[in-house]
Amino acid sequence: MKVEGFVTDGYEAVREVFQKLVDEGRETGAGVSVWKDGREVVRLDGGWADAGRSRPWEASTLVQPYSLSKAFVTIAALVAVRDGALALDEPVATYWPAYGANGKEATTLRHVLTHRAGQPRFPATAAGLDLLDDAGLRESLVGAAPEYVPGTSLGEHALTYGHLVDGILRAGAGTTLGEVHAEVVRPALGLDAWFGVPDGELDRVADLEYADPAWPRLLHAAPWLQIPDGTLDVGRANSRAWRQSVFGAVNLHTTATAMARFFSELTGADGRVRALLGPHLHAELLASQVTDFDEVFGTRLTWTLGFVRDRGKIAKGGIGGSAAWWSLRHHHGCAYLTRRLDDHSRAAEIAAALGDDLAVVGED
Questions:
Q1: Which of 34, 61, 280, 308 is the most exposed place for a label (fewest CB within 10 A)?
Q2: Reported pTM
Q3: Is 80:86 a contact under the CB 8 Å cutoff?
C-alpha cells in the first residue's frame, strides 16, 4: 500500500522508513507528522483506519495514543494552578479532605504530576469495578494506602493519573478534567484532541488492533495495568462508550499533525502553551523535576511535570507504540501515532531518520 502525504526537501528518509514499515506489515495504520519553524514539513499517512481495512488512514484520522494523553491532564491541572484554585505544593487533602488518609496526608499535586504519589495502579479493592465507573475508581484511590511514602519513589501512574487529577480538580476547582480540557485547554492550544469524542467526530476514530494477541500479557508494565479489567482490551477501546468517556491517563483521541504541532510549540517563548499557562508555570512544566529509577518504565529517567526529558528531547509516548517529542537538538516537533499495538521500534526508526534518539534515559 502506497504511503500518502508529503515530505519537504531533506526529509525523504522519513518517507522511506515509513513506507518500509507499511510494506513489511509492521505498520497497518499510522500517521507521521513533523513541524519545524511554524510549518508542517512532513505529513505521511499509511495503512487503514479500521479493522476491516476499508477506510484508509488519513491526515484527519483520530487515534488513542494511550499515555501521551497524560500531557494534557497535566496542562489541565496547571490551568487550575494558574487560576489560583490549586497549588503545586499544597497537600491535596487541603482541597479533598477524604483523600488525606492512610498515609496520603502530605501528598501534593506536584507528587501526583511527577508520578511520585505512591498510587501507580488502582488498588485490589477496585478489581470488580467497571472500566467506566469514574466515581468508583476515584473512591478506590481515596480509600487506599500509597504503595510507598509519597515523594520517596517513582513509578508512572499508568492508569490512575487522570482519576487523581480529576478528583483534585473536582474538589479544589469545582470542575472536571473533561470540562477543563474541552472549555480551556483544547481551544487555547488549537488542538484536534478530545477527551470524550463528540458524535460528529466519531467517524474519524481509528480501530485499535494487536500486532500479537499475546501483547498485553508480555508487557513489562502489565502488573500496573490489570485493574480495572479491560484497559488493553481492544474490544472495549474500540467501543463508542469508551471513545466518548474520559479516562484521562490513556484515552485522549488525536491526530499526528495535532501532536507534532503541539510539541513544536511546547517550549516557545511566544507559543500557545506559554500563553495559556504564563511564564512561571510554563517553566515549571518543562523543568526537570525528578530523576530516578521508574519502576513502571523499568529504567532510570527524568520527569518534568508531565513529560520525559533528557539532553536530546522532551517527549511522551504511549503503550502500543505512539510517541511525540520536541527535539532539543534539531528544534522540530514530531509525532508517530499508530493503531497497531506493539513496541516503540517503529517510532524509534522514524526518529532515527530525523537524527533523534527515542531511548529513555535519565538526564543526569
A1: 280
A2: 0.97
A3: yes
pLDDT by residue (tens digit) across 296-308?
A: 999 999 999 999 9
Tell the residue number behind the cell numbers 502525504, with chain if given: 5
Asked whether the beta carbons of 307 and 263 are under 8 A apart, the reply is no
pLDDT per residue over 189-238, tens digit each? Answer: 999 999 999 999 999 999 999 999 999 988 989 999 999 999 999 999 99
Long-range CB pairs of 8-13 (<8 Å, 24+ gap) are: 8/41, 8/42, 11/41, 11/42, 11/354, 13/353
What contacts 93, CB < 8 A, 6 or more positions away?
Answer: 99, 100, 104, 105, 107
Angle formed at CA 294 by CA 289 and CA 118, multiple of 5 degrees: 80
What one-character-per-residue DSSP string does 290-320 give? EEEEETTTTEEEEE-SSSEE-SSEEEEE-TB
Q: Tell me the CA distances in angstroms from 254 to 1, 11, 106, 126, 149, one per residue in order.
A: 23, 23, 35, 29, 35
On the CB side of 122, how many CA atoms lie within 13 Å of its CA? 26
- Sequence-separated (6 or more) residues with CB below 8 Å from residue 255: 31, 33, 59, 60, 61, 62, 63, 192, 193, 337
Residue 247 C-beta-side C-alpha neighbours within 13 Å: 25
Q: Which distant-in-sequence residues (6+ apart) come within 8 Å of 214 by Cβ?
A: none
Judge whether 314 and 326 are in contact, CB under 8 Å.
yes
Classify strands 323-327 and 313-317 as parallel, antiparallel or unpaired.
Answer: antiparallel
Nearest CA to 89 among 73, 70, 106?
Answer: 106
- DSSP-assigned beta bridge partners for residue 301: 292
